[in-house]
Amino acid sequence: MTILHSDVDGSANSRKMGVLLSNLGTPDATDYWSVRRYLAEFLSDRRVIEAPRLLWLFILNALILTARPQRKGKDYAAIWNRDRNESPLKTITRSQAEKLQQSIRDGLLGDTKSNVIVDWGMRYGNPSLKAATERLVARGCERILFVPLYPQYSAATSATACDKLFEVLASMRNQPALRVAAPYYDQDTYIDAIADSLTERLISAGFDPDVIVASFHGMPLSTRIAGDPYYAQCHRTADLIRTRLGLPQERLIVTFQSRFGRAEWLKPYTDETIKALAARGARRIAVVTPGFSADCLETIEEIGQENAKYFFDEGGEAFARVDCLNDSDHGMRVIEAVVRRELSGWV
Q1: In the β-sheet with 284-288, what is the strand arrangement from edge to edge?
Q2: What is the pTM of this model?
Q3: Half-sphere exposure of 337 (CA within 13 A, CB side)
Q4: What is the largest distance, in Å, between two alpha-carbon atoms of the chain?
Q5: 298: nearest Cα among 21, 79, 121
Q6: pLDDT tens digit sequence for 324-335
Q7: Distance CA 177, CA 16 (A)
C-alpha cells in the first residue's frame, strides 16, 4: 500500500530535484596502473565489447591490459590538465555542471531554483555515478533527471550509462523517481550550436576548407546490424548541420574514428578518409566532432594531433580542429535546453 504525503507548503514544486550530468569517463592519472584500471572497467563492459565473454576476458587480461595502458597513458599525458592534475574531460564536465547550477540560480527554471541540485558523474572511473547519486539523495532529492551527455544514442554509451545508474538505484530501498533525457541529435538548439561554433572556428582559422569532416566515434558494424540507431542518428545530425550551413553534401562528409580490434567498424574511417583527401588534392580541411559534448583524448589527441599529422604528411597545408561545445555559451545553451525540456511537468 502506498501512502502519499503532501509537501509542507502543499506544492509539488517544493520537492528537491537533482539533475545528474554524465559522460564516459577518464583515468585518475596517466601512470600505467591508473590507465589499466580505467581500461579494465571500460573494456569489461558487455555493452562496449559484445564478444563471447570467456574468450574476450582472456584476450583483455592476457594481451590488451599488458601493453595498451602504457601507450594510452602517454596519449593522456600529452593532453593532461596539469593545473588540476586531471583529464580535460573531467575539467569540462565539472564546469558544465557548475555553470548549469548557476543558470538555474539565475532563473533558468523560474522560481524553483532553490529546489534543483546539479551534480555530475562518470560511467567509468571517478567521480562515479554511484557517488553522485548518493550525494543527490543525501541532499534530499526525491526526483532525479539523468542527462547522459551523448547527442546520439548508442547502446555502448547511453544505454550502459543507464544500466549503471539503474544498478545504483537497485541497491536503494527508498529510490528517487527517475527520468532519463532523450538524445538530442536533431534538436534545433544543438544543430545551431554546432553550426555556429564551426563558423566561428573557421573565421579564426582564416581559411575556407575544401572539405569539412564530421567525425563521430566509431562503433562495430555489428551494432548497426543488430539495430543500434547510432549510425542513422549521426547521419541525421550531419544532414541538419549541412542544411543549416547551406553546404552541398560533398563539402561536409561523415566519418567514424577510434576503431579498435580487427572487426569491421562503421565506415568510412576518419584516418583513412583524411589521408585520402590529402592524396586527392585537398589542401585545407576542418574536422568537427558533433558526437562529443566535451573535448577528450579522442578529439584533442586523436583528431588534433594524430589525424592532423596524417593530413600534413600527405601534403595538406591547413588543418582546423573544431573544439567540442564544451562549457562554452553554445554548449551551455544546449544542455540548458535539454534540461528545460526534460523537467517539464516537474517544475
Answers
A1: 252-257, 211-217, 284-288, 318-321
A2: 0.94
A3: 18
A4: 72
A5: 79
A6: 999 999 999 999
A7: 11
